[in-house]
Amino acid sequence: MAKKIIDVKSIAQEVPVFTTLDPGKDGAFAHWKMGKLNHAGMLDSGEWREEPPYELLIAEQPVIYPNSPVPPSDVVTLALTAGAQAEKISQGGKILWVTAREWKGQIPKAVHHKRAIGALSGAEMAYLELWLSTIPESKRHNVIDAVALGLWALDRI
Predict the structure, then answer these.
(1) Phi and psi dihedrals of 2, rounded to 5?
(2) Most buried among 3, 16, 32, 132, by the most CB within 10 A?
(3) Is pTM beyond 0.70 here?
(4) Is 33 left (phi over 0), alpha (psi -120 to 50) or beta?
(5) Which residues pair with 32 in a beta bridge?
(6) Closest to 58 measured CA to CA, from 99, 112, 114
(7) Distance between CA atoms of 146 and 144, rounded to whole angstroms?
(8) Nearest Cα residue to 104 out of 140, 60, 139
(9) Spatial contact of 23 and 114, defined as CB atoms under 8 Å apart
């Protein structure tokens, strides 16, 4: 599996613009230009359409893990949602899928989010705070996941 991670990171670092996707009912996106966070938000806002289609979409791939408390049927539903969201956002561009274990491992969400926030430049953080201010607090973690996925792809975390 290590080869897949290296390929995703090398591809992300070679394209000037790409999008990352945290799929789901409360799916979120982050747009990246020249290695910098350009915009982030919730999919249902429609803001992802404000940019021209990017040639690459990196999305988190839902996985059924053995002994997980999450019912497999819920993961299948999420996977179907993820596929539909990725196809819509990619608009024919390349889609690369990575599992949560591949890009963030077993690190607790709070710790991982703190690392992601700490990896942002001052300007990126200021914009992220502005974008998050319009999103209910209970959904902000989705946007931070989309941002963190992009930071991972760029080898910034």
Answers:
(1) -60, -35
(2) 32
(3) yes
(4) beta
(5) 18, 37
(6) 99
(7) 5
(8) 60
(9) no
Distance of CA 61 to the CA centre of its chain: 10
Q: What is the C-alpha to C-alpha distance for residues 56 and 9, in angstroms, rounded to an integer? A: 12
Spans of the chain below 70 pLDDT: 1-6, 49-53
Tokens of 19: 């999008």
Q: For domain 2-153, is the CATH number 1.10.10?
A: no
| 113 token code pair | 């989010």
Taking the C-alpha atoms of residue 15 and residue 118, their distance in angstroms, rounded to an integer, is 24
Distance CA 52, CA 119 (A): 26
pLDDT for 54-80, tens place per residue? 789 999 999 998 888 988 899 999 899
3-state secondary structure of 19: strand
pLDDT for residue 93: 85
Residues, the chain, total? 157
Neighbouring C-beta atoms of residue 125, cutoff 10 Å: 14
